[in-house]
Each structure stands twice: as C-alpha cells, then as structure tokens.
Amino acid sequence: MRLHMQVAIGAAAVMLAVTGSAVAQQSSGAQPVLAMTAYSVAADGSTVASAGGDDPVVTGKAVTHYLYAGKAGQEGACTSGSADGPVTSLETLLTRAAHVWKVTATGVKYEAGKQTFDLAWQRYAAISGAVPVVSRKQRITLEQGQTFTVDLLHNTSPDCRTASVIVEIEAGMREDPVLADTLLYYDLWLVRRDASGQTETRHFVMMAKQGGAVPFEFPTLRSAIPKLQANQYDFELLSKIGGELRGRAGTDGRVAIELSTNRQDRLARTGSRLGVFPGFGAGRKILEVGWEEPVEIQLPSGTGYTSTYASAADEAAGKKSSGQAGRVKAGQGASGSMPAAPVSIQNGRLVVNYAAFFANETVSLILQVKKAGEAGGAPAVQ
Amino acid sequence: MNETHTAIVSAFLDHEPVDPDALSAALDDPEARAALVDFVRLRQELGRAGDGLPASLQTLRRRPVARTVALRWSAAAALLVLMFLAGWMAPRPGGDARGVTGPPDPVRVEKFVPGVDWSFR
Predict the structure, then answer these.
(1) Which of residues A166 and B68 earns the better pLDDT score?
(2) Which of A21, A94, A29, A30 is nearest to A59 (CA)?
(3) φ, ψ (nearest 5 deg) of residue B63
C-alpha cells in the first residue's frame, strides 16, 4: 500500500467501471466509470485539496477503496488523501490517519445512460479503531456528470484553511482513444406547428467533442391570450425550452445521443420582467441516429392550469395576494376545479388550462448531427 | 420597324413556311419591304463574293436579323417564367415568417411520454 498525505494534491479519483464493454455505448467504445474523491474544502467554497484513486471494475464485482483525512493523534482534518494500490489493512491506515473512509461500490447495471451501483461505506476514526463511526448502504443511480455526496466531516483544527472534508462519488465516462477527438456538430431546431399548419421555428447550433455535453436554450415562444373582458391586462403565455445534448460517435457510423430537455410555460403580463418560471416538465431520452439523419422529438405541453388576476380592478378588489401567475395542479385552483375552456375568467382571475390551450399545436425538436469539418458538415475546426 | 413583319419576310426568303395572310400584311409594311430589298441585295453581294469562298461560308445567307433577336428575348423571358414557377412550386424548407431557416424533414419521430421519460415538477 502506498499512502499519500498531502495538502495540495491534484484531483484523483477512484474510477470504477460499472460494467465492461457490453454497455449502451458499445460502438463508441466509451466505458462508464465512477470517481470517488475526498475534497478538502475551505470556508469560501474553494477546494484546498482533493485525492482519490483509479480502479475499474465490472458488474457484480465489488471494489473497495480507502480515503482518509487528518493525522492520527492530531486534532482535526487538515489533510486528506487516498490509499491507492492494494491496501493491506484498515488497521494500518488507522495508525496514520485520524479518519478513514472505506468505500465499496458494486456495479449493478448501466441503462439509458445511467449507472446504477450498490454503495457501501464506513467511516472510521483512529481513536475508536475498527468499529465504524458512521456507515451506510445505498443503491445509487447517476447520470454522467452527476455527483452524490457520500459523507461530510467538519475540520475542528484552526491550523489550516480546510473547513470540511467531503467525500463524493461522480459518474463519468472514459472515451475510446480512437474516437475521443471526434467533433460533433449539432443542428437543433425548435418547431411549433399549429392546427392550420403555420410553423414557428427557432434554430440552435452547437458543437462538442465526443461525449461532451452542450446546453441549449431557445428564445421564448410566445402565445397570445385573448381578451375576455374589456379591462383585462394584456397577457401572453410564454414557453421556454432548453436542455442539454451529449453525443458519441460509434465505429458503426451511428451516433448515440443523450437528450435532456425541459419545458417551462408561464402566464405573464405582456412586457413584464420575468423571474423564475414556476413549474416545468422535463425528460431524458436516449437516441441513436445516423450522421446527418434528422430526427424529430415531440415535447409534451404542461398539465393543470395557471391563473392570475385578470385586471387591475380584480386585483384591487380585496385580493391581497401578489397576483403572480403560477402553475397549479388540476383541482387545486381558486375555483376548486379546472375549467375546460383554454382561457376563462373565474372569480376575477384569468385561468389558462394548459392541455386545452395547447391542444391544437405541437412543439418539437428536430436534431441533425454532423461530423464537424467534413463535407456537408460544419466548417472545419482548428 | 415591325420586327414581326421583317421576320416573316426573312423567313419567306429562306424558303420557310409562312402564313400567306401574315406575309401579305408584312408586305404592306414599308419598312418590311425595305428590309426585303436589303435582303435581296445582300444575297446578290454574297453570291458574287461567294465564288471565292469556301463551301462552308457559301451557306451564309444573310446577316443576323431582328427575328433572331426577338426569338432570343422570347426564349429568355420564357425561361425566366419557368424558373419563377419552378421556384414558386418547389417544396421549400419549413422556414417561418421570421426568416429562420427551416429544419430538414425528419426521418423518424420520437415522443417524450409523460410518466415514461417525461415528468412534471
């Protein structure tokens, strides 16, 4: 066993390959991994040091790694590190470190871009020996890039910048070296079609390396709200659509796409400043497409209804709430039931029934992936 | 000068079929008659000079006339009309009134399904 006790170490990770090559990313040769890291974090949020290890495993096989903090016989947890290579014994570590984490991960499955694994961990202290201070067993599912906090230990020593030591596990992916430098060019359109065939289109262009995530957010779609009473405010229904794309080229000429999308609908007075959209829908889909093969992905509209005061008079008529439009689930509105009409006024409030309002339109994403720098694709990238 | 009358006279001299009524009308046009005389003189000149010319040049019958120009303009106009109609009727990408370039036609359609791969928060 090789023991590192250092204050400023570069990032290190316990990399656990959850499965072998028989995963969803077969043709891309990418290998899902888990990274376990102990971070020494300062009070300003910056990372003072981090440490971990690197060790692939396969489904059904448990791999154990040790992380530690502080020095045995000293107060606090100013230092952190990892024990990489074959660990001979927990007892040996406890003679050197004040706190030791034994972390075991067993791969369960890799499905739809998500890694599922059984996590079993214990934290030991030098002063209490081989009896764990804290322990836990959990089944965890993470997407690539997602992090799960395993444990947090506050540093009690004033002799260093470290405020706490955080042990995290993060899902990652190792790319096939042959394909790792592939550049993917994404053409993404947002298309809204109404019943008459009229379309409204937004276009977004992105580019990323193999396996790289690229966020997108389209300019807001706006829908007019009819005037149902003379003194009604001018309203519009806003729809914000965004998300994230991640693609991997395969050796078979296909491209595996992970598409995360969210849609936020909000009723607002025309021209008003917008804050946070209240509720939203979100989805995640795994696609496989050919180069330059356009695929359409239809998005659902919202459910339930939203309402706000219809006019200044209604707002002033003893209704003391903010009048902020908000997404309300079916049956929870002021009237206690959802009006069937797309837009109606009930008790001085303008009510929009999402399902009825969007019944005659479809909103879709159309995605086309090109290999950057090749004929028919995007301009070559240096 | 009426270019149609001139063209009819020219065609007649070239032994091409012409409508007799159109030829009669053309010959009523003084400018067309003048052109006819010019064509005859030109042929005589070419006939005298043609003895020393190679056979390929002896087929030269007359200078380019307005008829050719008129036909060229007609053809160009017809071509422009055809191009306009083709552009008008051809399927175009689904761009919208804002001028955003439309997407290509998708080869397949997928759907996010609430409760399956879509949730509301």
Answers:
(1) A166
(2) A21
(3) -70, 160
Q: What CA–CA distance (Å, rounded) separates A199 from A191?
A: 7
How distant is the Cα of A297 from the closest Cα of chain B, in angstroms? Answer: 5
Residue with tokens 């969803």: A24
The contacts of residue B6 (CB under 8 Å, 6+ apart) are B26, B31, B32, B35, B65, B66, B67
Neighbours of B71 (CB within 10 A): 11
Element (H, E) at B7: helix B3-13
Q: Find tokens 């399904």 and name the residue.
A: B113
Q: Count of alpha carbons within 13 Å of A39, Cβ hemisphere only?
A: 20
Residues 146-165 of A with CB under 8 A from B: none
pTM, 2 dp: 0.64
The ipTM assigned to this model is 0.72
Identify the closest residue of chain B to A286 by CA–CA distance.
B117
Residue from B112, B113, B119, B121 whose CB has the most chain A CBs within 10 Å, to mutate: B112
User: Which carries the bigger pLDDT value, residue A140 or residue A112?
Assistant: A140
Asked if A261's CB is within 8 angstroms of B96's CB, the reply is no
